[in-house]
């Protein structure tokens, strides 16, 4: 099966700063992919490269087997909803739908009208007078009505209240079940991703830290707590992601395919949020060590 997104050594530089570097991932079709990381990690850069809004500085990327935005037919296969849920303030809801029909050859006019009615949008109302949640639902409707094979969403619920977020995500999940397309979704709200995503990519410091099916990642990462121990004394197959120590106790998050049998350790499973924070903590711990070395 053709990958939804295949990146090899992908990088994007803004002047002298790397927005994304050394990105190699291969996302199979049929997943709802959560893309997560701190501000400035490269999430938006990766999504803009995937949608053809940016050109890479290094490496290569294909989306649905083709070059992003390479031809009109390729553009029609990919939907994109940006972070600010862009709509035209002066156009009515109905005018947005008519514009979408003119621009998209696979446009589902009936589905768009039915969804607008279902979420309670008034066709004659101008977009500039909609609430944040209503604008997000309009932007999602425009993305879904393209009938894309891949829908890319960049922080689509970041500015919404909890009820609007829930309604947005529920509508998205219902559409993926009904129409069987793939989704790549970035968000700071890990709790939202944990409920809907079955594939996870963690970006930190412009690099991919880990990527894979969520169930597999959770099955191969563990929290170990026990008497204080140097990480070098752990078995070679236990890759340390993050470590915290007190005078008497050590707590590690490790990645391993093998069972942990050491009776000295208390082993607990991680949530998706625990997993993400462990990779972010690994990065910040490295920053702290560099700072301390610089001060010596």
Automatic annotation (TrEMBL):
SUPFAM superfamilies: P-loop containing nucleoside triphosphate hydrolases
Keyword annotations of the record: ATP-binding, Nucleotide-binding, Transport
Transmembrane residue ranges: none
Pfam families the UniProt entry points to: ABC_tran (PF00005)
GO molecular function: ATP binding; ATP hydrolysis activity
Domain called ABC transporter: residue spans: 5-230
Protein name as annotated: ABC transporter ATP-binding protein
